[in-house]
Amino acid sequence: MRVSNKMIFDTAQQNLFNLTEELNRANQVVAAQKKILRLSDDPVGLTQVLSMRSGLSHVAQMERNIGLGKNWLAASESAQTQIQNLISDTKALCVQMSSGNVGTANRRSAAAIVENNLKEIVALANSQLEGRYIFSGTNTETEAFTIDGNNDVTYNGNNTPFTIKVGRDASLEIGRDGEAVFQPSGAGAGDDLFVVMKNLIDSLQGNDIGGIQTAMTDLDTCFEHISGEIADVGSKMIRVETKETILSDMDISTRERLSLIEEPEITEAIMELKAKEVAYQAALAATSKVLQLSIVNYM
Amino acid sequence: MAGGIGLVLSIAKDALAAQQYGIYVSGHNISNVNTEGYSKQSAVHEAKRPAPFGGVILGRGVDTTQVTRASDQIIENRVFSETSDLHSYESMANYMIALEAMFNENSDTSVSNLIGDFWNRWQDIANNPSGTAERIALYEHSKLLTDGLNTLDTDLEQMKTDLTKAIEAGVERINEITTEIGNLNNEIAGLEIDASANDLRDQRNVLCAELAEYVDMKIFEQSNGSFSITSARGVVLVDGKDGYDLQLDGSAVEWIGSGGNEVDITNEITKGKLGGFLEMRDEVVDQYKANLTELASEFIWAVNEQHSVGVGLNSLSSATGSYRVSDTGEELGTADSGLTYYEEISDGNIELVVYDSAGAVSNTATIAIDADPGGTTLTALQTALDGVANISASITADNALRIDGDGAHTFAFSGDSSGVLAALGVNTFFTGSTAGSMDVNDTFASDKDFIAAAQIDTATGEFATGDNTNALAIAELQYNSRTISEWSYNRDPSIGNTEGSVTGTIEEYYHSLVGALGIKASSVERSVSFSKTMLHELKTMRESISSVSLDEEMTQLMQYQHAYAAAAKLLSTSDEMLQTLLAAK
To answer: Of A32, A100, A232, B526, which one is least surrounded by beta carbons within 10 A?
Structure first.
C-alpha cells in the first residue's frame, strides 16, 4: 500500500490519542480507587451497586431501630425487675404480718411500707425513656398510671403497644400496654397489681389477717405474671440481638460485594497504570523516530 | 536538413517545458502536503503524434496533456457517510457525559440516596412519633429530595434547550455550506469544459465532508461535474448551483423548497451532528424526563395516599386540597374532572371524625364516593361534607376542596378507601405530580405537627400522639412492588413513543432508570469507538490514494530535475550542431 506522509502523521496521532486516553483512565482508577467512574463504565455493576447501597442504608436504619429497641427493652426489663423485687419484699412482709403474733401498730407501720412500695411500683410503671412513657401503649406522652389519695391507680395509656420495625418483615413491640403488664385481666381484677397492693394496705390497716392472706396469694399471681413479662422482654432482647448480628453480617458481606464491584484491586490497577505508561513511552519513542525519517536527510 | 535540427530544438523546448510542468506539479503537491482534503496531482506526459520524415516515422517529443488528480469519489463518499455516523455518535456522547453527571450516583446527594433516606426518616419518626427533631429532619430531607428531582427535571429541560441551540447553529452552518457547494458546482461546471478542475473539486469535497459532519447525505455527480446532494430521506440540499436552506421552526427542523414551501424533516434526519442532537433531545432526554415524571408521579401518589388517612399530633382545623379540578360539575373519577390523579379514585368511603374544642370525639361521618361516570362530583362531595355536623366544606376560587371545622371544632380522617382525599390533595404530604413540580406540602413548612405519623383508632375515633402506625405504613411503601409506566421514545414515526410498564419498588425503578442510562451511554461510547476505527480505516484508504508522500515527491523532483538537465543538454547539443553546420564553408 502506498503510504503518504499524512497517513503516517494521522496514525501516529490517533495511536497516541488512544494511549493517552487509556493512560488517563488507568490513572483515574488508581487515584479515585473506583472502577466505576461513570455510569457507562459498568451499567450492570452500577445497578447492583445502587441496590447494595440502598440495602446498606436500610441495614443502617434497622441497626438504629434495634439500638432504640434495645434501650426500651432494657428500661422495661429493669423497671419490671425492680417491681418484681418490690412484690417479693411486700410478700415477705405479708408473711410476717399474717402471723397472729404481730400487733396492730406493726401492721400499721407495715401498711405504710406497702403504701410506699405501691407508690414506688407506680413510679416504676411510669418509667420514661427520652421523655416517653414506656408502659403507656402509644399514648407515650401521657403518664401511664396516676395514683390518688385513696391509693386508687388509674391507667391513662391505651392498649396499643408501641411497635417499631427491626427488619423488612420484622416488627418489635418495645413499648407496652401498661394494663396488660400490671392489670392483665383488667382493672380491678384479682391479678391487678395495684388493686392487690391497695387491698393489702387496707387489710393491714384494718388488721384483716384473712385479707393479708388473700393478698399473699394474689401477690404470687402478680409475681408470676411479671416474671412472665420479664421473660418475654428477655426473649425479645435475644431476638433483637440475633437480628443485630444478622444485620451486621449482612452489612459486612454487602460491603465486601460492593468493594468487589466498585473498587479496583490496587496491585492490578497499578500494574495496569504501569503497563499503559510503558506502552505510551514506547509509542512516543517510536513515533519520534519514524517521523524523523525522510529521503531529504539523504539528498 | 535545417528542418531536422529545428525538430531537435523543438523537441528540446517541449521536453524542458514538460519537465518544468512536472516540477510545478511536484512543487504544488509538496506545498499542499498538509492541506486538508488535498488530492495528489500528477502531470500526464504523452509522446506527441509522430510525423513521417524522410521515409521514417519520427517521434516529435513530449506533451503535457493534463494534470490528473488521484481521487476515488466512491471512497470519498464512504468517508462522508462514516463521518456522518461518527459525528452523530460523538455529539450524543458529549451530551451523554453531561447526562451521566446529572444522574451522578457517586455522591451522597444522589437521588437514589435521597429516596432511601426518605424512608429512613419515616422510620425515625416511627421510632419517635412525638419528636420534633425527627419531624424537622423528615421535612428538610423531603425538601432535599424534591429539590433533587426538580433540579434533575430542570437540568434535562435545559439540556433540551441547549440541544435546540446547537441544532440551530448546525442549521446555519449547513446553509452556508450548501450555498458554497452550489457556488463551487457552478465554477467546476464552467471550468471543466476545458480540463479537470482538480483543486476546486478538492475544496468541494472538503465542504462535503463538513456537511457530512452535520447531516446524513447522499451525493450524485452530474455529467457536467456538479454534485446533487440529498439528505434526510430525500430532500435536496444542493442541486447544481442552487443550495436549499433549512430552518428551525421552534424545535422542528424544516426544509424550504424552491417555492418557499416548508417541509418538517425533524424526524427524517438520522445521522450527523444534527441527527445526534435530535436523537439526544427527542429520544434520550425526553425519555428520561418522561420516566422521571412517571417515577415522581407514582412516588407522590403512594406517599399521599397513605398520608391522607393518617393524623398528625393535632387534628385539623382547616384543610385545603392541593389538586384542582377543571370542572366542579364533572365526576371526580373521570378525566373530565381535570384531576391529575383521577384514575386512582375508586368506589369507596371517606371516614371522618370531628372533635370538640376539648379534643373529644363529637361526631363521625362516612361519605360514600362513586368513581364511575354519573358518580360523585366535587360539588356533590362538597355538599356531602358540608352536611356533616360541626364542619363546613367549600370550593375555593381555583376549584380546590376546602374543609373547615366550625368554631373550635377540629377534624381528622380515619380512612379513605376511595382515594379521593389523596387525589384532591387533602391532608397529603407532597404536592405536584411531576418530577419538575413535586414539592412538600406547604403546611409542613410552618407546622410539622401535621405530618401524619399516627392513625385514628376506628373503634373510638381517638388517636395517640405516640402512635406510629401511619409512619410505619409509609416506611413500608419502600418494599411495595408497584406497576410503574416506562416510556420508550423513538423518533421514527413508524415506531413512535411506546408506553410499557415495569413492576418493582420505587427505588428499583429509579435504579433501572439509571442503569438504562449507563447502558445507553456505554452503547453510544462503543459506537463512537467503532465508528472512529472505521473512519480511520476509510481515511487511510483515501490517504493511500490521494494524499501526498514527500518521499515520492522528492524522487519525482529528482526524476524531473535529471530529465530537465538532459533536455537542456539536448538544446545545447542541437545548438552545437547548428554552429558546426554554419561553420562549414
So the answer is: A100
